[in-house]
Amino acid sequence: MWTRKYLRIVDRVVFRIRKLLRQVVVILPESKSPKLSLFRNFYQSAIPNNSEKSGIAFYDLDSNPLTYNVIEYLELAQQELQLRGCKKATFVIMPRSGSVIRTIKRTDYDCLMRENISNDEDTWRLWNLIIPAIAFYPFFNEFTVSGSRHKSVVYSKSRECFPAHYNPIAICYLDIETLYKKHLTSASKLIGIRVPDSSIVKIGKFIVKKNINPSSLITVTLRIHPFDQARNSNLTAWEQFAIWLKKNNKHLIVLPDQDTYYSGALEKFSVLNSLIEPEFAWNIYLRAALYESARVNFLVNNGPSALAVFNKKANYVIMNFLSPGSVVTTSKALKALGHLSFNDRLPWGSGNQRVCHEQETLESLIAEYKKFFTSDRCSTGAQT
């Protein structure tokens, strides 16, 4: 208790001293004195240039997961830093440490996630998910994986910082609820991910090589995971839906859960298994490009859905959005984020970006398919 209070007091004092020194530098005359020139030059670099004002976002692994939540974090960080006048920013990934002082107790969700992810998996996710995701937001023109938590204290005092008043020694969780309600209340406010052009080109070549009609391309993303099983896909329903789509001359691509792809869970579902394109599940850029290129993406409420949810150009239907029995997608949590403001879409979603609260059955999947294409035909004149 006293340690936290002491750190906050020191934090404020240091901030005010630096602010005063910056003001002194502005009024200092040019001088031939080496000491005065050295003083001026040192603090001159701390004076922000409004035309090139830059920020810094800290993705602290002591308070943020190694999951697709990083997309949400990047979106909210850019929203907040741009609001403060920043033109660009650096994304800093902070290493885990057992010696930080927590101002908020770790949630049950975080504890359960840690139990299901090994240290080797942590490393894999860092280099194959977290770092590649930064490229979706060009606003972050630099990134670094910090080797020291203490050096970041200096960074956080010299630039606009996200989270505001970030302290790597006494961390707290991001106030996601407030940020969502502040920045993501309509489609016009979404910045959205920017999929690299090279990835779009590669998907285009794939479509041509496979002789796929783009207007008939549909993806299904599955979730099969030991953590929070209430959100897992109903494989029987998806198998039946895949058969129905094939009968209606649709080209279906199935993206498996990359964490359990080799577990054999899909072996008895022959149709789903035959439609899997695993390379799109492992490569985050190709997955995002596929979502953007498909006529519609059928999803469940899992991590990869962020690549569609935060993409203005991706059409999607998320099934079982309010998953009964889930420890994550509870009614209380989604209401707090404002995600239930509209019955059939997220607050920033467009007409072709839908959510469905019903669990997956063949009947509910076909019903959502027809709703989507009825809406799509009305808005674009396209044929189903």
| Total domain units | 2
General shape: elongated
Mean of residue pLDDT values:
83
Structural class of the helices, strands and pairings? alpha/beta
Q: H/E series, N to C?
A: HHEHEEHHEHEEHHEHEHHHEHEHEH
Could you give me the name of the CATH homologous superfamily of the largest domain?
A: Glycogen Phosphorylase B
Characterize the largest beta sheet: strand count, sense, and whether it forms a barrel. 5 strands, parallel
Note the quaternary state here. Answer: single chain
Radius of gyration: 24 Å
CATH class of the largest domain, named: Alpha Beta
Q: How many H/I helical runs?
A: 15
Cα distance spanning the termini: 62 Å
SSE topology sketch:
Blueprint: H1 2-27, H2 34-44, E1 54-60, H3 69-83, E2 88-94, E3 101-102, H4 108-115, H5 119-133, E4 140-145, H6 152-158, E5 160-162, E6 170-171, H7 176-183, H8 197-209, E7 217-221, H9 235-247, E8 251-255, H10 270-274, H11 278-282, H12 284-293, E9 296-300, H13 306-309, E10 316-319, H14 331-337, E11 353-355, H15 362-380
Parallel strand pairs: 1-2, 1-5, 2-4, 3-6, 7-8, 7-9, 9-10, 10-11
Helix pairs in contact: 1-2, 8-12
Tell me what you see in this structure.
The chain is of the alpha/beta class and 384 residues long. Helix content is 43%, strand content 13%. It has two domains: 52-183, no CATH class; 197-380, Glycogen Phosphorylase B (Rossmann fold, 3-Layer(aba) Sandwich). The strands form three sheets. A five-stranded parallel beta sheet has the order 8-7-9-10-11, with helices on both faces. It has a four-stranded parallel beta sheet with strand order 4-2-1-5, sandwiched between helices. Strands 3-6 form a two-stranded parallel ribbon. The radius of gyration is 24 Å and the shape is elongated.
